Amino acid sequence: MNIIDELKWRGAVNQTTDEEGLHELTDKKQIGLYCGVDPTGDSLHIGHLIPFMMLKRFQLQGHHPVIVIGGGTGAIGDPSGKNSERVLQTMEQVKHNEDALSAQMIKLFGTKNFTIVNNYDWLSKISLLDFLRDYGKLFNVNTMLNKEVVASRLEVGISYTEFTYQILQSIDFLHLYKHENVQLQIGGADQWGNITAGIDLIHKIEGSDTDVFALTIPLMLKADGTKFGKTAGGAVWLDPKKTSPYEFYQFWINQDDRDVVKYLKYFTFLDEDEIKALAEKVRTEPEKREAQRRLAEEVTEFVHGKQAVVEAQHITQALFSGEVQDLTAEEIEQGFKNMPSVEVSAEKKNIILWLVDDTKIEASRRQAREDVKNGAIWINGEKVQDVDAEIDPSAHFEGKFVIVRRGKKKYFLVRIK
């Protein structure tokens, strides 16, 4: 299947400048294409995955993706999607973020048939006079004002700095066309104005018949109309230190039946037949959540590797069954990250005193004795019914944790000092 046909089947095409021309070009040859990301933070989140999954699909069909880390544009600030000015970062902050994002990109794309560049390398060499004479002359202010990204900010105001962002992004496209054989830029729906400005610049400098194209991806909305990728706890990050692989896996496995097939098309490399079969399972056996499990497995493996999937499934099964004793300390750190926790000393103690005085898991000694006698207390996966039992914090999990379960599902993580 031609890559453009595949993207359309997956519902991943919002706008293109010349779909027929792009289809012909990708039939005829392997092309260079790019997507940019400004280093505004030191990790990508799953919203970034939307365009990057498209680049990965091109790469798998032999095309050559180029990622632009915006060391130059990131120092300025993209007005897209913002109703106020961005806070400028220090250059040290930008550099730290560049290094972190580059490492994440290599993890997703490998090192073969893939290039990472930094637009600071060429933008920083343009003098103010060269910028005004060579590029500023080719941009009509009226046209720039009509671009949605600028027009939406006119009422509240936009600085000249952010106003010129589209010129800098256009210079990126021109540079990559000349030096990396890039003929296509991909971005989110809000990038349409910036991308088409780049095409206009290339046509003015290289000739109106130059084959360069734009492709944007639809805004991703959930079935309830809210924006994809946000949770009650904030963004879902690709950095395992910010969002653990277990949390990442859980995010995907908890997706709504109404969204899961769309996400299988967007975020996995499963073929049409397999996705149709999973869609049928959603329709006929939704309680099994087979499509959600497959989605979670595929995306977690793509971002974090196969071992992360194994660990996430191990944690999930342990929490579901209550058999937590076989978890590693690392798995406990992931799986219990958002559960109630308390820190206590490593000394051995009677279970009743420990539950009430040290951890405050139980409100009173009477309640603690009652719960223990009734079999409602589990310590490290084992039921404890002896009120004279002793808690030894060093006995499990490298002496770092004690896991307490009260009732069927109420877990507490006790961290040992």
From TrEMBL:
EC number: 6.1.1.1
UniProt GO MF annotations: ATP binding; protein homodimerization activity; RNA binding; tyrosine-tRNA ligase activity
Short name of one Pfam family: SYY_C-terminal
Chain residues that bind ATP: 230
Enzymatic reactions: tRNA(Tyr) + L-tyrosine + ATP = L-tyrosyl-tRNA(Tyr) + AMP + diphosphate + H(+)
Subcellular localization: Cytoplasm
Binding locations of L-tyrosine: 34, 165, 169
Keyword terms, alphabetized: Aminoacyl-tRNA synthetase, ATP-binding, Cytoplasm, Ligase, Nucleotide-binding, Protein biosynthesis, RNA-binding
GO cellular component: cytosol
Family: Belongs to the class-I aminoacyl-tRNA synthetase family. TyrS type 1 subfamily.
PANTHER family reported for this sequence: TYROSINE--TRNA LIGASE, MITOCHONDRIAL, TYROSYL-TRNA SYNTHETASE
Protein name: Tyrosine--tRNA ligase
Organism ancestry: Bacteria, Bacillati, Bacillota, Bacilli, Lactobacillales
